[in-house]
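Supplementary Data S3. Sequence and structure tokens for construct A.
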Amino acid sequence: MTQDLPTFRLHPNVYQLDLFEREAGTCACCGEQRDWKYQGPFYAIQKPDYLCPWCIADGSAARYYEGQFNDELCIEGWEPDPSASANALGEELIAEVCDRTPGYLAWQQGEWLVHCGQLCQFIGYVGAAEIEQLRPQLTGDLQDLSPAYVQALSADDSPTGYLFRCVQCGTHRLHTDGT
């Protein structure tokens, strides 16, 4: 029986970005025969060979392996001090992105961006041409980057641009590998 693939609110293009490979196998978490194997980051002591999207979507993989798909310390503005004002996102949103949302592949440590007080959706990898089309929305994210660095950004090489979109207002945000 074929089951519909789960969707991820904060990572709507996860299957198009090849973070899941179509490969038959047994999920190390649920023990079910599956056709989709996760290929993205997973931060845990024990690294399973095969995780299916269903175990990621329902949080069972993160619970079973005591791991995270996105590091909470890489959420923009998040602080390990629970009383810090930057932690206004709330535990449920932090758990959604860390425990139930596939990560994205980055040359360096990825960062999950925030806008309108909400976690953004990761849209995909972008280069200079895509960034140029969105330049008015990305002004704040581009202000500390040299024009030469922005021109060197590539969707499939280093340095890479990582495009996010606000779930509330639709504004795009940009993270890069560094300057």
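Construct B, processed identically:
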Amino acid sequence: MAKVKQKLRYFDFYLFIPYLLLCIVGIVMVYSASSINLSYAGMKTDLYLYRQMAYVILGLVCFTLAMLIKLKKLTSKKFIICGFYILAFLLLYAKFMTRAVNGANGWIDLKLFSLQPSELCKLYLVLFLAQLLSRREQAAAQNTLQATSRRPWLLVYFLLFLILMEPDLGGFAINFMIVAIMYLASQATRHSSKRAFLYLTGFLSVVMVFVFGLRFWNPLAGTKYNYMYSRLMAFYNPFKVAASSGHQLINSYYAISNGGLFGLGLGNSIQKRGYLPEAYTDFIMAIISEELGVIGVSVVLILISWLTLRIFLIGIRSRDVYETFVCYGIGTFFAVETFFNLGAVTGLLPITGVTFPFVSYGGSSMLVLSITLGIVMNISIRQRRLRAADKNH
């Protein structure tokens, strides 16, 4: 109990308040975006409201537990090995033992919510890579880098491969970016960021050329993965495929256009009335834009930007290399997920089904994001306690 009081003494409200506000916005907007269609279907209009509230409460519990846990437990060899086997099993189970949802076998139905193993991978890879890269830094400092093994990277590649096999392109892209940015950060600390940046730029260039080439050649034609090519075509010209894969993006455009500066008012969205499918999930920002306008969207973006920058700042200030890499990884997680979601809603990126942090409906996303933020809070509290001890001395 004394330890809990001590942690609360150094509690970082600059981190917690934006998180709580985003969760509240999510609860309100999930209800607004889902209630009318539930009414049309003859179901209870508050079904997703209560579910989202339950996810937020569970998220707060997970946040608290992550805040109180000893960080050393997350660096143990047992945690890393067990975590890998559990995630590999869950990804394989989702791929071969579950029914496909929107073309991907990426969810495991737990009744209360659907578990998405690729979401857990984001947290695991942050913790695993932070340990791997911090040890690499220590080895470099002691001039023993040649003795370090590259075999642990095979575990990272294997998990990324399993996510791609589902296929969960959104989950793969975010997990890959977490790995790439954390590696880039480690290279920067060793004064070789230019080489790492060139590698990353080269890889992304090859990907962009390949994606552009798919506009003229469809290698997925006639296969069960043809839906991915359809999404790409919707990204290039949604109005050309308005009756099929472009339908969702076009209605997102209409929602954004309808909202203007101040919006139509809370609950007054037109596109949520059967036009924009599952608007309470990855396209909830389109409904926020329509109902609350540019002002409402700006408030949400300010909150998530503050949260993300705060996480990076905590990482920069940390005296511990492991904690720095953890914060960099989690900050990348938040930033990339936000970018992918907004890119899909505005047509700047292909639709990948990535949710908006803390606002979109979903149990797996809420719990994993809350745990990651609880870990950052844990690090922030430790920093504040150390700074206070330095001042006293």
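Residues 107 and 187 are 35 Å apart (CA to CA). Strands lie at 108-109, 114-115.
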